[in-house]
Amino acid sequence: MANIDHQPSKYMLNLLHVLPAFTDEKNTVVNTIVEVSSGSINKYEIITESGQLKLDRVGYSSLAYPFTYGAIPQTWDLDNDPLDIEVVGITEPLIAGCVAEIRIIGAMKFIDGGEVDDKIIGVLADDKRVDHIKSVDDLGEYFKTQTKYYWENYKALKKPGTGVVGEFLNVDEAVKIIRESAERYEKEYKPKLEA
C-alpha cells in the first residue's frame, strides 16, 4: 500500500497529485487521504496546492462527523476540490493525513450551497469486519437517515438550508462518478501542475 511510483525527492510529495485514484479498479478500491476522523466537529482539509493538512473551520455546533472523511487523489469534483469520500464501519479512528485503501460501496448525491459536491461511500478494503458490506443498502436505513441529517444540518447555524441530499447510488454509479472526476482532474487540474 502507498507504494509511490516517483523518484526520491528532497521536497515533500503532494499525495493528491502522486497517488492514483484507484489502487484496484476491478475490485473498486481507491486511495483515500484521511482528513477528518469520525466524532470530530472540526473540518480539516488537504491543501490542494501543497498537500499539507489544515484546519478549514471549527464546527458551528456540536454536530460531529458520523463517519471518517477524506479525499480521493487525482480527482476533481464539480465544486473545484478533490472528490470527497465517507469511510464507514471504522473500528478505531484513523489518523488525519494517513493514506488508506477504501473499497467503494456506493455514493450520495449532494448539493452544497448550489454546487455539486457528491460523496463517495466506502469501507476499509482490508478490514474483515466489513467484508459483508457490499452496498450502501447493507448499512440499513438508519445510516441513510443519519447521513442525510448530518449533511443537511452541518452548516445550519451558519448557512441554513445550503445542504441538499439527493439519492444514494450503487457501486457502479459511484465508480462512474470517480472516473468522471479523474478525467476532470486530467483535463482541468493536472495542466496547472508545475513539473
Give the SSE layout.
Elements: H1 15-18, E1 22-24, E2 29-36, E3 42-46, E4 53-58, E5 68-71, E6 84-87, E7 99-112, E8 115-116, E9 119-124, H2 141-153, E10 163-169, H3 171-189
Parallel strand pairs: 6-9
Antiparallel strand pairs: 1-2, 2-5, 2-7, 3-4, 5-6, 7-8, 7-9, 7-10
CATH superfamily: Inorganic pyrophosphatase
| CATH A-level architecture | Alpha-Beta Complex
Helix content: 10-25%
- Strand numbers in spatial order across the main sheet: 2-5-6-9-7
Give the class-level CATH name: Alpha Beta
Q: Spell the H/E element sequence.
A: HEEEEEEEEEHEH
* Class by alpha and beta content: alpha+beta
Q: Tell me the domain tally.
A: 1
First-residue to last-residue Cα separation: 25 Å
Percent strand: 25-35%
> What's the overall average pLDDT, rounded?
92
For the sheet with most strands, the description reads:
5 strands, mixed, barrel
Shape: globular
What CATH calls the topology is Inorganic Pyrophosphatase
Can you put this structure into words, describing what you see?
The protein has 195 residues and is α+β, with helices and mostly antiparallel strands. It has a single domain (18-188), classed as Alpha-Beta Complex (Inorganic Pyrophosphatase). It contains three helices and ten strands, in the order αβββββββββαβα. The protein has helices spanning 15-18, 141-153, 171-189, and strands spanning 22-24, 29-36, 42-46, 53-58, 68-71, 84-87, 99-112, 115-116, 119-124, 163-169. Strand 3 and strand 4 form a beta hairpin. The protein is globular, with a radius of gyration of 16 Å.
